Amino acid sequence: MSDINLQYPDKLNVAVELVDKNLQEGRGQKVAIYYQDQAITYAEVARNVNRMGNVFKQLGLEIENRVMLLLYDCPEFAYCFFGAIKMGAVPIPTNTILKPKDYVYLLNDSRAKIIVVSEGLLPAIEEIRSELRYLKHVVVVGEAGPGQLSFAELISDASDELEAADTSKDDAAFWLYSSGSTGFPKGAVHLQHDMLVAADLYGQNVLKITEDDITFSIAKLFFAYGLGNALYFPFRVGATTVLWPEQPKPPGIFQTVKKHKPTLFFGVPTAYAGMLQLVDSIPDVDMSSIRYCVSAGEALPRIVYETWLKKFNLHILDGIGSTEIAHIFIANRPGDIKPGASGKPVPGYEAKIVDPEGDETEVDEIGSLMVRGDSICAYYWNKHEKNKETFFGGWINTGDKYYKDADGYFWYVGRNDDMLKPGGIWVSPIEVEYTLMEHPAVFECAVIGAVDSDNLEKPKAYLVLNPGFTPSEELAEEIKKFVKNKIAPYKFPRWIEFLEELPKTASGKILRYRLRQLNQ
Ligand code: 3UK
Predict the structure, then answer these.
(1) Which of 113, 118, 328, 411 has the most CB atoms in a 10 Å sphere around its CB?
(2) Domain 204-415 in CATH: superfamily?
(3) Ligand 1 pocket: which of 227, 298, 427 to mutate (most atoms within 8 A of CB)
(4) What is the pLDDT of residues 436-451, one digit of tens each?
(5) Which ligand 1 atom sits closest to the C-alpha of 412?
């Protein structure tokens, strides 16, 4: 398989492996985190992790209890994430761009007793507080109000010594929620060893990350992708991570690269395309520190890969990862890139493409992508039926359609469900359709993926209007705004087209493929 040793001891607390080990190996004074104008050493991180673990204990958190992290990327994220794991609890990094009703579900489903939240995100939580059946404490990074606790005060009073909880390599370590086309998000329960497997197989073996690297991920820490890129890959080897709390817009991204000089840059296709569109209007772009760019979340169009290479003389390594598998499992590698393809299985993972009977398909024949590897989550919390559809004796059904070419490269074709991933973030067409139906003008609708000029997929809505409403540009804009206000804004349809009627089967089912054909 490789020279990487995937044998981990039975007794394992992953916070010790990822934080304390750096001190034991003499990196206490090395910078772990760049954040704005701060440079925070591993010794400082370790002390704050211990303090936070003690704070959680004092607040009544116990082993196996969940704690939700609703934070912009910041050092406090690392202190809370590893502090919780070190005292045996289970942190849940959570998407910061959801709506209050989404948080009601996530907090009640997980039964998190504590939430640590950035001040800017507090209104969404305060609005729903009376509906939260299990939440006991709201800890605020920033200014705390009545009924809330201040992170800064709590941590300043806490001891910086903490003995790690006596966990096994198979204890739960963290959860990440993943959304599906129907129903509620599913909490993927990840174990203590999962981050080590992902960091060793992809971070070390493919990216060859070392302590000399500086990582910068525009995918935030609450995504499985960002969590590896910007936290546990660098911490696994004692490298330095750049944490950046802002929304990843091209000018800020270029500025951050210039300021902190990362060697590994992690983006998503939409961001690469957006950066290319703006680069010539931004002064002093300096990408010379970067040795590799990584892309994941959605397929990287060949045109974006090639334009980027021409512009910066930098290769983008596209790879497919998932929340359930923790990180990237099929990837293009330094010196082995097929533009447009996802690459080959990362050594340590197995991948196969199967037909509906479960038999492996022939070369170039499309089927369902199945993956086996040791970073796959144990199960979805409280989702027995979903578990039966997803996990099979070590294998996971990714839900993706793929084929493999004669050279062994894997090519992404689409999803088995109708899920879309604009900007690498899940959008359920059904949720968008339900929201559109709430608008008084909408009689019927269907949402599909259509591609923009960079060949990147975005949601597009087809609408049939109620009597009394006439199609117009203004109405389309008003409906887009309506959706943005109701559900997480990145889900809104980028295009709206009005039809007299939707294509349907004899039994009245909407023919989505006919709508997709309209776009070809
Ligand atoms: C799709 C891709 C084509 C695919 C992720 C890197 O995206 C991540 O996790 P999610 O759970 O989504 C997983 C799904 O997204 N996908 C991701 N990458 C690619 N499709 N080409 C790609 N390169 O449908 C997959 O099943 O949000 C990415 C690392 C960790 C991750 N969690």
Answers:
(1) 328
(2) ANL, N-terminal domain (3.40.50.12780)
(3) 298
(4) 999 999 999 999 999 9
(5) 3
pTM for the structure as a whole: 0.94
In 3D space, the residue among 324, 318, 279, 281 whose CA is nearest the CA of residue 297 turns out to be 318
Best residue among 421, 426, 427, 451 to mutate for probing ligand 1's pocket (most ligand atoms within 8 Å of CB) is 421
Assess if CATH 3.40.50.980 describes domain 14-21+39-190.
yes
487: CA distance to ligand 1 center in Å? 22
Cβ proximity of 134 and 107 under 8 Å = yes
Sequence-ordered alpha helix ranges (H) in 38-165: 42-58, 75-86, 100-110, 122-126, 151-156
Return the beta strands (E) in 452-506 as ranges: 457-465, 495-498
**Strand-pair category, 379-380 with 442-451:** unpaired
Q: pLDDT digits over 240-283, tens only?
A: 999 999 999 999 999 999 999 999 999 999 999 999 999 999 99
Nearest to 292 by CA among 214, 198, 201, 199: 214
Cβ atoms 93, 174 nearer than 8 A:
yes
**Distance between Cα 296 and ligand 1 center (Å):** 6
